[in-house]
């Protein structure tokens, strides 16, 4: 049976079932019940049901049974619709909860795997930072396939302890892929090359820990992934790689440790989309297989998410995934077949459908049974209503026999109460009208009512006082007669209201209503007044006298303008206001100059915007405002940010602003840039400490020279001490001139060898010495020159000394002193003199370098090497690099 046939049969059956000759609810006068039921049906019933009732049942002419049945349907159908919607939402919620469970599981697995990889990386980094490993010989100097008995054997033992600790073999690999240590082998076995040297190169190039993709050993077929950590030498260069080959079974056990359900599973894929591990029994079958491209595309540019795709087994699956922080490109995903998730939806919906059909059938039957009980008392009420509407004699409703239905009995009692209340309501309306008239006359706002000819029909005392005329002199008169001076201003407003029917609101009317009257300012609104037919017959007026308010507003605006000019005139201080939440409410020119933010961008920004990231993380902005709120004012200094990201030192004063009730309204903030002042104070303090430190060092060295210089000959003792202290003084002057930041080597050498001008040549690149190396190098050059002047090339007129320097292979300094043209020399024997001991002490102990002497017959040669940290990254000033003789 179609929907149309079913509706027709019901419409034919219901009227026929009603008793003949009985009045129905639809026949009541006025049609109020019919309209109410029609409105109820229009709100409660769905569109299809409303159309069926209108076209077939004709409820407005049907009996009570049809109405009750429609009422039951109107109650049940929306309830069933709501129940269906609730069930659907519940089912959808269960499905969403299941998907969210997958997402939470993927997130939890990613945390566990990140923690596992992080533990391995941390252990390897601790091993890589071992002093014995960082200070060891360059990897290229070790013979391949052998473990020396020294430091490498100790590292091998350490590596085996680490491997036992983390449960994974550890190997130390050179850049060419040759393993120096492999804990998977016995100590006496020779390590071979790693199976994937490209990964070693990647770790060295990146200079940070990396996790490889899936690696298959070509010899054994064993599948692993490797964690690589760079090993740095003393200069900070990555020269080797520590690798830990992790078996896949370890990751599989980690995934299988959490129960996900019978159908769900978890897996890990590397950056190439290959399966690393899987939580279920298909781990061995799936390892190494590549995910479908459509599934891999979901991971691109996404840290986490959910999607639906086809698995490697060809099953439609819902996935949740999460990327790994410790292994970029790796992804943990948890999947469950879509069929398993959707299976939970069918049962509740089928149960709801069966229950809904049963409820409709039962409700319709009960509605038909109750209709017979209601019809008889309803007829008596119907007769009473007809008599009441026709104003005929009718019995008092209170004397009608009681009705068996409680609602109908309440209706009968209501009729009796309504008739008595009509008289009381009329009296109350009269009293209310009198009260309204009293309010209308006494309200301080001007009110009036005008007809279409703009004549006053009524007005109150407030409007009469505005016009300075009694109320009686307004009634029946035109506005132009009452207020001739104001009529030209207000006439357009009246015409607009009368012609368009739209109100005109809040129009300012200035001036006196008549000559010699006091000028005032009024805010007036005009609205149309309509009759029962909707035609405009007049205009209502509401007028406010705003003279005093506008004068006060003008005075306030002038005062605020003067204050604004004062604030804008301050350019060396940032003056701003903050609201109670710490947002910028005002911004002066000084704030724009100090902080760099234009007013348009600064207004509304949080106060914390101007703090450094570390201060915001520490909660300093909120702490400062809380301190100002607690104590009334806050004063302090700190680093702040300009708009371009640069920092400056600010002296800040913040004052809390409260109203009379003590409620916080905002803050007044004054700040000043004190960066230069603070920098000058710090520089003075730094220089004072440096001068103190240098002076103490100079005095200590001078005292040592006095104590250690041989005193057999007083004149020679005085000359030696004087020369060495003079060398220290010259170095001290060079340091002071350069602000104690070091000195350029060439300038220092020229100063120390100036006494031998014409016999000394200098050659070498532009190099700068660190502050701690300047005085030792100056004394070193002084001792070499003194020795050459006494016994070497500088003791003769034709002798020459060549001083050359350059960087060595490790980035340090190599300094060569070569003498030619002096007397024949021979290596000294026996006990060394004080000069030789002083030179050795300066190079070995103070500079941390090495010195060697070559006593050639044509002249002594000396080579000095200093470590890299005795040099400056940037020399103070450029100089020529070729050999330059010191001018005579």
UniProtKB/TrEMBL annotation:
> What cellular-component terms does GO give this entry?
membrane
* Sequence ranges assigned to domain PAC in this UniProt record: 499-558, 634-686
Keyword terms: ATP-binding, Chromophore, Flavoprotein, FMN, Kinase, Membrane, Nucleotide-binding, Phosphoprotein, Photoreceptor protein, Receptor, Repeat, Sensory transduction, Transferase, Transmembrane, Transmembrane helix, Virulence
Q: Name one GO biological process term.
A: regulation of DNA-templated transcription
| GO molecular function list | ATP binding; photoreceptor activity; protein histidine kinase activity
Q: Does the keyword Electron transport apply?
A: no
- Looking at the record, the residues that make up the PAS domain are 559-616
- Give the reaction(s) catalysed: ATP + protein L-histidine = ADP + protein N-phospho-L-histidine
Its Enzyme Commission number(s) read 2.7.13.3
Does Isomerase count among this protein's keywords? no
Domain named HAMP: residues: 372-427
What's a Pfam family in this record? Answer: HWE_HK
Cross-referenced InterPro entries, in alphabetical order? HAMP_dom, HATPase_C_sf, PAC, PAS, PAS-assoc_C, PAS-like_dom_sf, PAS_4, PAS_fold
Q: Where located? A: Membrane
Q: What class of enzyme is it?
A: transferase
- Looking at the UniProt entry, the stretches that span the membrane are 64-91, 349-369
Predominant place of localization: membrane
**Cited PANTHER family:** ETHYLENE RESPONSE SENSOR PROTEIN (PTHR41523:SF8), TWO-COMPONENT SYSTEM SENSOR PROTEIN (PTHR41523)
Name by which UniProt lists this protein: histidine kinase
The source organism is: Roseicella frigidaeris
Taxonomic classification, please? Bacteria, Pseudomonadati, Pseudomonadota, Alphaproteobacteria, Acetobacterales
